[in-house]
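Case study 2.
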Amino acid sequence: MAKKGRLIVFSAPSGCGKGTMLGEILKDKRFRCSVSATTREPREGEVDGVSYHFLTREEFLRRVENGDFLENAEYCGNLYGTLRSEVDPYLEQGTDVILEIEVQGAMQMRKKRPDALFVFIAPPSMQEIRRRLEKRGTETPEVIDKRIAQALDELKYAPDYDYIVVNDALEDAVADFFSIIRAEQLRAELMSDHIEEVIKNA
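Prediction:
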């Protein structure tokens, strides 16, 4: 029987560099990032079906009613969610699937998929979050203030995750993520088959 993939829930406030981190992590072809669905407008350069599945609010809510989502939540006035079709088929094939989702959705996943691995990406400081958001140049000062307030609220959920990675230096944060993955692979319950084989062949 083929080994199933691991579901990895990956959350961070805006400005924590999770997109850049994921870009580095996904160079490793053992991982696939689920493409979330959202009702927000596409940003410049974003592609439907690649960056997000862009849905109208009506279509999104209809698919919620149909049970198409593993989780869904509202964030800064827009709906976000993870479609089952983006996760389960790949786990069955043995691929580790990363869900880049907000804390509300992550807490839903904690109840629905308690066997998933939960990783929270934290900033070195709130000042650094503001600096990164301002550097983007894509949002008004009012929106940035709203995202800062949201980030403070999200940080309160960090202790509910399995691991917290501080993204101060990108290379170190990515290395920390891979260290977590390796440590998880060596958990005793996952290595029991090896121990049984050693004893059997003694």
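Residues 7-34+96-200 form a domain with the Rossmann fold fold (CATH 3.40.50.300).
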